[in-house]
Structure formats: C-alpha cells, structure tokens
Amino acid sequence: MMTRLEQSGKTQDYAVTLRNRAGLSANQNLLVWYRELYRDQFKDFPEPPALSVLEVGSGTSPLKQFFPHVITSDVLDLNYLDLVFDCHDIDKFDAIRDQSLDVISLTNVLHHLKSPISFLNRAANKLKPGGKVIATEPFFSRLSTPIFRYLHHEPVDFEISEPELKETRGPLASANIALPWLIFFRRRDWAGDLNENYDVANSSVRFFSSLSYMASGGISHKLPIPRWLYRAFFPVDLFFSRRFPRLCASFFTIVLSRR
C-alpha cells in the first residue's frame, strides 16, 4: 500500500511531469540533444521501426516523437501514454507478454527507481532471448561531478551501502543520480546480481555528451543559444565526451543483452 508521503509525492510529480513535458517541447535545442541520443541508442539496430520497444518512464520523454512505434509507459496516469503501471511489478503486468519485447528503453529513469537491479531482473522475462535493455544515465567525470552535485536539483549520494534508494516519495521526487554510475562503474559486484539474466560481462557502454545538455538549459530553463550554433556545437561536444570520458563525459548509455 502506498504511504501518505508517497501519495503526496506522486500527486506533486504529476504536475511537475506535465510542466517538464511542456518545457521540453518548447526547447528546440534540448530536442536536438534527445534526437541525437535516441539515434545513438538505436544505431546498432538496422530497422528500429520493426522492433517491439517498451519505454519505461515516458512521462516527460519525447521518444515517441522520433520513434512513433514505441510503447510508452509510466507509473503516473497520463492520458498520452500507452500503458500505466509500476515498473517494479513489470513481471506481474500481463498486458506485456513474456518474451515479447526486443528492447526496453529507459532514459534518466534508473536513478529514480527504488531498486534498479530488482527492476532489471524482473523485466528480463518480458524480453526475447537476446533482447536488449538500453539505459542512459548521468556519468560522473571530473567536469560533470561538480555540476551534478552543486548545480543540479536531484540528490547525489556516493556513500550508499546497497544499490537502492533509502526512501521513496514519488516517481520524480525520489532519486539518487549517482546510483546507476555506482552500479556499473564503481561497484561492479552490484552489477553481478544481474548475471543470471543478462550478459553483463559483454555489456556495451557508450559515453554521450559533455556540456551540450547543460548548454540547452535542460528541462527547467531555455538558454538563448541559436539553434544553428547549438547544432554546430553538439558534434564537437560529443567528440570530446567520447575521446576523454573520465574528464568530461556527462552521460553514458549501457546496453544489456538478455541471456
């Protein structure tokens, strides 16, 4: 049963999600950032429209603008979504058949989940053998760490003793943006708990962008940078994030394959 604190957080997050979605749609530079991210996420698939793709955490996401075939979902009951359910219970959600999905996509979602490892293991049965989880999350480089810690509104906690959130107050209000980075980079023993369902040893990691997300203003702000200038800056920013990830990358995409 949902606690009063969780119910209050969920109600607040509903309004925040609608506001963020409107802000993102009005920010053309940020839409460029997302378009390039989605191209990169699906670049290894020759025919993305032929895939059965579930996106988890679609409340603010513009993915369906670029890939209309994607099945969108969220825990919040938003009228523009295809499915509404708690992803922590995805294994019990019969509207998605077992072994029916080619891809489960998540962008900046894992760090909001109470137990991301538990979710990933529960989600595995919904994937076809060889199906993929594609997740993009913040990466903590020398450049991005002070930005995320001191200029970003979401909590950063490197000192957690287990790969879970200590408390939950709502799907957006609850977060530790360091959690996925800790799982896949600093505490690889935590990622080992995925080995039964995923080929973790052969997972693919790609770094994505340095300052281009911040230069867009993000969801909450819109900086007065001409679109042509932003589009010219983006590939340079992407190059440096991949050439010197420990120095300046701000995001990473991990691709996990279902055994």
The residue-averaged pLDDT reads 94
Low-confidence stretches: none
Task: Output the CATH topology.
Answer: Rossmann fold
Report strand %.
Answer: 15-25%
CATH architecture: 3-Layer(aba) Sandwich
Rg from Cα: 17 Å
How is this structure best described in words?
It is a single chain. This protein has ten helices and seven strands. Helices cover 36% and strands 15% of the residues. Helix 2 runs parallel beside helix 9. With 259 residues, the chain is α/β, with parallel strands linked by helices. The protein has one domain: 3-Layer(aba) Sandwich (Rossmann fold), CATH 3.40.50.150.
Give a concise summary.
The protein is α/β, with parallel strands linked by helices and 259 residues long. It is 36% helix and 15% strand.
Q: What characteristics describe this protein?
A:
Rossmann fold, alpha/beta, globular, 259 residues
Outline the secondary-structure elements.
Blueprint: H1 4-26, H2 28-41, E1 53-56, H3 63-66, E2 71-74, E3 83-84, E4 101-107, H4 116-123, E5 127-138, H5 144-150, H6 179-186, H7 188-191, E6 204-207, H8 212-216, H9 227-243, H10 245-248, E7 251-257
Parallel strand pairs: 1-2, 1-4, 2-3, 4-5
Antiparallel strand pairs: 5-7, 6-7
